[in-house]
Amino acid sequence: MSLQNNAAVVVRDLHRHYGKRIVIEGLNLRIEPGEFVAMLGESGCGKTTLLRALAGLDPVDGGSIDGPAQPAVVFQEHRLLPWAPLWQNVALGMDTAEGKAKAIAALQEVGLGGRENDWPRNLSGGQAQRVALARALVREPSLLLLDEPFAALDALTRIKMHELIKDLVALHRPGVLLVTHDVDEAIALADRILVMRGGRIASTYEVAAETESGPQSLRHKLLGQLGVTLHERAA
Ligand SMILES: Nc1ncnc2c1ncn2[C@@H]1O[C@H](COP(=O)(O)OP(=O)(O)OP(=O)(O)O)[C@@H](O)[C@H]1O
Fold first, then answer.
1. Exposed end of the chain (fewer CB within 10 Å): N or C?
2. Judging by DSSP bridges, how do beta strands 36-40 and 175-179 pair with one another?
3. What is the pLDDT of residue 116?
4. Which atom of ligand 1 sits closest to the CA of residue 46?
5. Rounded distance, CA 167 to CA 142, Å?
6. How does DSSP classify residue 76?
7. Atom 13, ligand 1: residue with shortest CA distance
8. What domains are defined for the chain?
9. What averages of pLDDT result for each successive group of 10 residues across the chain (235 residues)?
10. Ligand 1 pocket, CB under 6 A
């Protein structure tokens, strides 16, 4: 895959089906370097399918993806190797003194300075996700794919992780695609929010413009797009 017009990724007319079930049908998407894009959509609409295709983990049935061959991915579960100390989990495959130094610096960036020789089993859920972020960013990826990385964390830890990921993205400037179920998380983090429906991008919202007078109206619009009315939520 080649980079097009300096974009972090360009997706054209993407198709993906499982047997007769069409999940992605003519999806187009472009993410710029440093741009934070969040994707919402009802359960089963194909968000993870899209993310896995962008990550090169699954094949597609049509269309094109122009982006890095191996973008960085962070999943809901940290996927750390239990038998490797934290620095090795981050350095993964970079078995040089330079690789180790980079891993230690990346751990410092995510607030785990001095913990490089510690083990995954000694970490809280939030700390483990910090290591997963360090592992993702240590290679300075041009595209960072986040599949609900904060969904399993408690509310306070999640807010701290939001601050961290905002700082890290401002520092490293990858293009970001975040798949999430959390409308408030999307508004808090993203420059642009996409709603996926019917196998493609059904709506796009520029967050800065939509939240000039506060986040509530965008929140209502997004919940409406996701088939949730405030009356139903209150019930
Ligand atoms: N390997 C597979 N084989 C067959 N069908 C699959 C496979 N993976 C996903 N699907 C189907 O494709 C559709 C989209 O799944 P996907 O996981 O991409 O949705 P999603 O939007 O990420 O859902 P959720 O928000 O619940 O995580 C679903 O109907 C799912 O059952």
1. C
2. parallel
3. 95
4. 18
5. 16
6. S
7. 44
8. 78-140 (1.20.1580.10)
9. 74 96 96 97 94 94 92 93 96 88 96 96 95 95 96 93 95 96 96 96 96 93 85 49
10. 18, 23, 41, 43-49
